[in-house]
Amino acid sequence: MEPFRVILLALAAAAVCSLDVRVATFNIERLGDGKLEKPEVVEILLQRYINFLNFSIPLGTPSLRMIQVSSYFFTRWQILDDYDLVCIQELTDEDGSSVPVLLGLLNEASGKEYTNHTSPRLGRTTYKEQYLFLYEPSLFQVVETILYDDTADDIFEREPYYVTFRSGNYMFTMGTIHVKPDDALAELIQFAPANDWVTENYGMQEFLLLGDFNADCDYVSGSDWDEIGLWTQPGYRWFVDNDADTTVNSNTDCAYSRVVAKGPDLQARISDVRVRRFDEEFGLEQAEALDVSDHYPVEFTLTV
Ligand SMILES: *[C@@H]1O[C@H](CO)[C@@H](O)[C@H](O)[C@H]1NC(C)=O
Ligand SMILES: *[C@@H]1O[C@H](CO)[C@@H](O)[C@H](O)[C@H]1NC(C)=O
Ligand SMILES: [Ca+2]
Ligand SMILES: [Ca+2]
């Protein structure tokens, strides 16, 4: 075959195989049964809600006929269904019973078939959290999971948790964390070494790192940044700026939720990163939005 034809075929194959998926990281504050018992929260997170504007048009003489007109007036799109893969922090449910409930509601409302993956329950005290991944198994399969082992020095309240997903022919490793606010600097300093530990022991070179880093405001500032390898090392690229506001509360302006990628191939696959201000989008009162979470999701496109 002529080289020209080979190149064309390769391009065509690449075009057919590459797919843009929407991904989000979302700290859903204290996600558990209580949260799912609030219909207004479920509606915002999971259910498409449509208000019809109904009006009648009189035709000819009043008694003759009226035409009933219904039109979509206002649609409140569910948040979670907008993503093919959602990485959630702060699942606090002790027995995990809220996960199938959440999944059932999501699948019913979206008509899709999401499934879940959960990390072990993490935390030093009886208060524990899990990382929760919701994804469509037709698009992603979990290949491997790794919990960073910090038993030697116990730096992390909730250790970084890595999930390698396969999507078609592409495999990527997503590492998530919910940094303890009061230990934010110490935990963030250890984050790059944790990735190096994964590389040394499991071989992954590139990482998609996301979650609630608490890397702003009272917890990390000024010269703290010089100590954080994840920030100073050239291999990492941060996709949410320090001046972003990922907090729902209008009194705080902090870039807590982040998306960072290590590795040039992975970095090139990330685009359209934005903080999703769902309160503005849906016209919610502050209190309504805060019932869902004190954090906004951060969303982006990943080309797989
Ligand atoms: C408007 O019409 C739609 C479709 O017939 C109906 O489902 C809805 O309940 C109506 N809304 C009101 C406020 O009457
Ligand atoms: C989905 O979540 C439930 C409840 O936490 C858990 O028992 C189950 O193992 C999860 N599924 C996977 C594949 O992790
Ligand atoms: Ca620990
Ligand atoms: Ca804010």
Automatic annotation (TrEMBL):
The biological process GO terms on file are: DNA catabolic process
Among Pfam families, the record links this protein to: Exo_endo_phos
Q: What span is annotated as the signal peptide, if there is one? A: 1-18
Sorted alphabetically, which InterPro entries does this protein's record hold? DNase_I, Endo/exonu/phosph_ase_sf, Endo/exonuclease/phosphatase
Mention any one GO cellular component term assigned to this protein in its UniProt record: nucleus
Species of origin reads Darwinula stevensoni
Active site residues per record: 129, 178
In Swiss-Prot or TrEMBL terms, this protein is called Deoxyribonuclease
